[in-house]
C-alpha cells in the first residue's frame, strides 16, 4: 500500500470546502481527510469548525468519539483483526497470544516493523473466521503465521 | 467449440468469497479460458450463502447452473480440463445448485436474487422481478402502502422487532416540510452478515424498499448509514445508487412518478453504539454519537428534528416482495406474531456456516445440526449465542427452541438480527461473560452511569471471580450489578449487556467455579 502524502493545510481546506454543503458534513469530511492523508491532523479542527459553523470543541469531540479516526499518520500497513464472538469461537484469542509470544507482535501495541495489528469487532465474515481486514481486503480463516507474514512482508518492502 | 454465445461462469464478488480467494479463482478462470480460446463470460455474482463452499463457482448449462466448490485457483486448470464449461465431472462438482440440500430447504423471499444475478445490473434486477413492488406501490396512496406493511406483519429485523407498519404510520401522519428515510446498516452484531451480503449481492433491493417507504410516508431524502468495516459493500452501494439515479429509478422522480427521492450512503466510523437508532441519527448529523432519550420518537423528531423512518436493511428489503406479492402472502409464512421469513446467519465454530432464509419457526437445532453439520472442530457443541453481543448464550440442551421473537424472549434470550454463533466445549463461559462487559465498556456512549461505570465494574468483578477471589460474594455483586444495569440504563446497550452475562452464569455455573487461572501473561 502506497504511503500517504504529508498533511497539507491547503489541500485539506479544499477537501473540506468540497463537502461542506452536505447535511451533517462532519463525518464525510473526516473520512475524506483520512482517506487522503491517512489521518486527521489536529490542524484540521479549526478549518472544519469554520466551514461548518461549529465550535472547535464539537469537531474535536467528534474526532475522538469514533474509533476509526487517527490523529497521527498510520504505519504503512494496518491489519484489523476481528476479536468478536464468532472469531473467538474459532480461537482468535489464542492467535493473539501466539502473535505476541512467537512473533513478537502485540495487538493494539506498538507497530511491528511498519505494520500494526489492531482489534476490531466483527468484519461480517463470521462463518469463515478468524477474519482480518488488511489494507481494505478481507481475509478469512486467518492464522498467526499469516498475520505475521503480512507484517513481515511490509517490513521487507519498506 | 464454435464462437457461439459465451458460456457464463459465476464467481462471487461477495467479501466472504473474496476472503478465501475468489479473486484469484476468477483470474485463473479468465486466464485458462483465454489460453484455450474458450468463449467464457465471467459474471461476478453475490454469494449463494453456502459460505463453507466459497469460492463457489457455477457454470450455466442447458440443464441449469452447476456448482463447484470450494475452488482454489490451483484447481482451475484441472477443472477446465475436466470440462467445467459443460458442467463436467470433477471431485469438486457439487451438482445443480438449486438441487443442493442447503438451497432446497430455504424459502428465499428477501435473498431470492442474491447469488443469481449480477448485483449491479439493473436489467438483471428487472428480469428477476425487480421494481415490480415499487411499480405497484406507486399506484397506491401512502396510507394504502402503510396498510399493506401493517397487514404483512413485518417486524423490524434490526433487533427490537417493532412492527414496521406502525412506525411508518406515525411518520406518514406527521405533518412536516421534510421527512427522512434512514436505513440502519450498522450491522455491528458479531455473527451477522446478512445486510452486507444483500448490499454486495442485490443492492437495488434495499434501494427499492427505501423508495417505497419514501412514497408511503412522503419523504424525499434518504440515507444509508453503513459501517466502515464494510468497504466492499460501500463500493457496491455507491455504484448502485449512481446507476439507479442515472436510470431514473430514484432521484428527482421515482420511476417517472413525480415523487423525488434523493439517496446517499454515509459511512460510520467504528462505533458499535451507532447501530442504536438515536445514536445513529446523532452521527448522521455529524455529532458524537450519544444516545438520545426517548421520547421524542425518531418517527416524530428524528434526523435534524424531522419525522424519520429508521429501519434495518432487512426490514426495507422485505418490503418490495410484500408490495409485489401481497401482504397476506408474506404473512402466510411464519408463526404467532413472527410473520414472514428471517434471514438467519450461521457462524462461529460450525462446519457449514452461511446464510439461511426461512420462515420463522424452524428450531435452532435444525439450523445448527442439520444445516450447519455441527462444529467445525468436530467437538461437541457447548454454547450458542443468538442475537449478537447483547444476546443470550444457550446450552446444547436448549436448541429445540424455535426461531420466533416470543419463544426466545420466553427463555430470556433474543433473536436480534438473526445471528447464531456456535461454540464447542473448549469455550470458557466466565471469559465470555467478562468479554460482554469489556465490549460494553469499550463501546458504551457514556451517557448514563449504570452502563458507563457498570460495565467497567463488571470487568473487575469477573476478573475477581476468575481469579477465585471471594467467589460467592463477587457472584452476588455480579447479580446486583446486572440487575442495576438492566433496570437503570438508558438504552439497550446497558440494558442488555447483562443478558449474555447472566445466561453464562445461570446456564454454565461450573465455569464460574473453575480452579483459578494463573495471572494472565499480559
Ligand atoms: C446497542 C445497539 C445496537 C444496535 N445495532 C443495530 C444495528 O447494527 N442494526 C440495526 O438495524 N439495528 C440496530 N439496533 C436497533 C436500532 O436501535 C433500531 O431498533 C432499528 O434500527 C430499528 O429498525 P427495525 O425496526 O427495522 O429493526 C441496535 C440497538 C442497540 C441498542
Ligand atoms: S446504556 Fe450505555 S450506550 Fe446506552 S445511553 Fe447509557 S451509556 Fe449510552
Ligand atoms: S465475529 Fe469476526 S467476522 Fe464477525
What does this structure look like?
Chain A has 158 residues and is α+β, with helices and mostly antiparallel strands. Chain A has 2 domains: 9-65, no CATH class; 77-157, Glutaredoxin. Helix content of chain A is 46%, strand content 11%. A 4-stranded mixed β-sheet of chain A has the order 2-1-3-4. In chain A, a hairpin with a 2-residue loop joins strand 3 and strand 4 (137-139). In chain A, helix 3 (44-52) packs across helix 4 (56-65). The longest helix of chain A is centred in the C-terminal third of the chain and has 14 residues, at 144-157. The relative contact order of chain A is 0.13. The mean pLDDT of chain A is 93. With 522 residues, chain B is α/β, with parallel strands linked by helices. Chain B has 4 domains: 3-104, Glutaredoxin; 122-331, 3-Layer(aba) Sandwich (Rossmann fold), CATH 3.40.50.11540; 334-424, Ubiquitin-like (UB roll) (Roll); 429-512, NADH-ubiquinone oxidoreductase 51kDa subunit, iron-sulphur binding domain (de novo design (two linked rop proteins), Up-down Bundle). Chain B is built from 21 helices and 16 strands. Chain B has helices at 15-19, 22-35, 76-81, 101-104, 122-127, 132-138, 142-152, 164-173, 194-201, 203-217, 231-246, 277-284, 313-325, 327-331, 364-371, 405-410, 429-443, 449-466, 471-488, 492-496, 498-507, and strands spanning 7-10, 40-43, 57-61, 64-68, 93-96, 180-185, 221-226, 262-267, 308-312, 334-335, 338-339, 341-348, 354-359, 381-386, 393-395, 419-424. Chain B has a 5-stranded mixed β-sheet with strand order 2-1-3-4-5, covered by helices on one side. In chain B, strands 13-12-16-14-15 form a 5-stranded mixed β-sheet. In chain B, strands 8-7-6-9 form a 4-stranded parallel β-sheet, with helices on both faces. In chain B, a hairpin with a 6-residue loop joins strand 14 and strand 15. In chain B, helix 9 packs across helix 10, helix 17 runs antiparallel to helix 21 and helix 18 packs antiparallel against helix 19. The longest helix of chain B is centred in the C-terminal third of the chain and has 18 residues, at 449-466. The mean pLDDT of chain B is 96. Chains A and B meet through helix 2, helix 4, helix 5 and strand 4 of A and helix 1, strand 12, strand 16 and helix 17 of B. Iron/sulfur cluster binds at residues 273, 291, 444-448, 451-452, 489-491, 493-494 of chain B.
Amino acid at each position: 500500500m502506497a504511503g500517504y502524502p504529508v498533511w497539507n493545510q491547503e489541500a485539506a481546506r479544499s477537501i473540506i470546502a468540497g463537502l461542506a454543503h452536505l447535511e451533517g458534513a462532519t463525518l464525510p469530511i473526516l473520512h475524506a481527510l483520512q482517506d487522503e492523508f491517512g489521518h486527521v491532523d489536529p490542524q484540521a479542527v479549526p478549518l472544519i469548525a469554520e466551514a461548518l459553523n461549529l465550535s472547535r470543541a464539537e469537531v474535536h469531540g467528534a474526532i475522538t468519539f469514533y474509533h476509526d479516526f487517527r490523529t497521527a499518520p498510520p504505519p504503512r500497513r494496518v491489519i484489523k483483526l476481528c476479536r468478536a464472538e464468532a472469531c473467538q469461537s474459532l480461537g482468535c484469542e489464542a492467535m493473539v497470544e501466539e502473535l505476541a509470544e512467537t512473533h513478537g507482535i502485540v495487538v493494539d501495541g506498538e507497530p511491528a516493523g511498519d505494520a500494526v495489528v489492531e482489534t476490531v469487532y466483527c468484519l461480517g465474515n463470521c462463518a469463515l473466521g478468524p477474519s482480518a481486514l488488511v489494507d481494505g481486503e478481507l481475509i478469512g480463516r486467518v492464522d498467526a503465521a499469516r498475520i505475521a507474514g503480512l507484517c513481515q512482508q511490509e517490513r521487507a518492502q519498506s | 467449440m464454435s464462437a457461439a454465445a459465451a458460456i457464463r461462469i459465476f464467481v462471487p464478488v461477495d467479501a466472504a468469497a473474496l476472503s478465501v480467494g475468489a479473486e484469484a479463482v476468477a483470474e485463473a478462470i479468465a486466464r485458462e479460458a483465454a489460453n484455450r480460446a474458450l468463449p467464457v463470460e465471467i459474471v461476478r455474482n453475490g454469494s449463494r450463502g453456502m459460505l463453507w463452499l466459497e469460492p463457489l463457482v457455477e457454470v450455466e448449462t442447458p440443464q441449469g447452473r452447476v456448482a463447484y466448490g470450494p475452488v482454489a485457483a490451483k484447481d482451475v486448470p484441472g477443472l477446465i480440463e475436466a470440462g467445467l464449461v459443460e458442467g463436467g465431472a470433477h471431485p469438486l462438482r457439487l451438482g445443480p445448485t438449486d438441487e443442493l440440500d442447503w438451497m432446497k430447504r430455504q424459502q428465499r423471499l428477501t435473498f431470492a436474487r442474491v447469488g443469481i444475478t449480477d448485483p449491479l445490473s439493473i436489467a438483471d434486477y428487472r428480469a428477476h422481478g425487480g421494481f415490480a413492488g415499487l411499480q405497484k406501490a406507486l399506484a397506491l396512496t401512502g396510507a394504502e402502502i402503510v396498510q399493506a406493511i401493517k397487514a404483512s406483519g413485518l417486524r423490524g429485523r434490526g433487533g427490537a422487532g417493532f412492527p414496521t407498519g406502525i412506525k411508518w404510520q406515525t411518520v406518514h401522519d406527521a405533518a412536516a416540510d421534510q421527512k427522512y428515510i434512514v436505513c440502519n446498516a450498522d450491522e455491528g452484531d458479531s455473527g451477522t452478515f446478512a445486510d452486507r451480503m444483500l448490499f454486495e449481492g442485490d443492492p437495488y433491493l434495499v434501494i427499492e424498499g427505501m423508495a417505497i417507504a419514501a412514497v408511503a410516508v412522503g419523504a424525499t431524502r434518504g440515507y444509508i448509514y453503513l459501517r466502515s468495516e464494510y468497504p466492499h459493500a460501500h463500493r457496491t452501494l455507491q455504484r448502485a445508487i449512481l446507476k439507479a439515479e442515472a436510470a431514473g429509478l430514484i432521484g428527482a422522480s421515482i420511476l417517472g412518478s413525480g415523487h423525488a427521492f434523493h439517496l446517499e450512503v454515509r459511512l460510520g466510523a467504528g462505533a458499535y453504539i451507532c447501530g442504536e437508532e438515536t445514536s445513529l441519527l446523532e452521527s448522521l448529523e455529524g455529532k458524537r454519537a450519544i444516545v438520545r432519550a426517548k421520547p421524542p420518537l425518531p418517527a416524530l423528531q428524528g434526523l435534524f428534528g424531522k419525522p424519520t423512518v429508521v429501519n434495518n436493511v432487512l426490514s426495507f428489503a422485505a418490503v418490495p416482495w410484500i408490495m409485489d406479492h401481497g401482504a397476506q402472502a408474506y404473512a402466510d409464512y411464519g408463526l404467532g406474531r413472527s410473520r414472514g421469513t428471517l434471514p438467519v446467519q450461521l457462524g462461529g465454530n460450525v462446519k457449514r456456516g452461511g446464510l439461511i432464509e426461512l420462515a420463522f419457526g424452524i428450531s435452532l437445532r435444525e439450523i445448527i445440526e442439520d444445516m450447519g453439520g455441527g462444529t467445525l472442530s468436530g467437538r461437541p457443541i457447548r454454547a450458542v449465542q443468538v442475537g449478537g453481543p447483547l444476546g443470550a448464550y444457550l446450552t446444547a440442551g436448549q436448541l429445540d427452541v424455535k426461531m420466533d421473537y416470543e419463544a426466545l424472549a420466553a427463555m430470556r434470550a433474543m433473536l436480534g438480527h438473526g445471528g447464531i454463533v456456535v461454540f464447542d466445549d473448549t469455550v470458557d463461559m466466565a471469559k465470555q461473560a467478562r468479554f460482554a462487559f469489556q465490549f460494553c465498556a469499550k463501546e458504551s456512549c457514556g451517557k448514563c452511569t449504570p452502563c458507563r461505570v457498570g460495565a467497567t465494574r463488571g470487568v473487575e468483578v469477573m476478573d475477581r471471580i476468575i481469579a477465585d477471589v471471594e467467589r460467592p460474594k463477587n457472584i452476588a455483586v455480579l447479580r446486583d450489578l446486572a440487575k442495576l444495569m438492566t433496570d437503570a440504563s438508558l438504552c439497550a446497550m446497558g440494558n442488555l449487556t447483562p443478558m449474555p452475562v447472566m445466561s453464562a452464569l445461570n446456564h454454565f455455573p461450573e465455569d464460574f467455579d473453575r480452579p483459578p487461572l494463573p495471572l494472565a501473561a499480559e
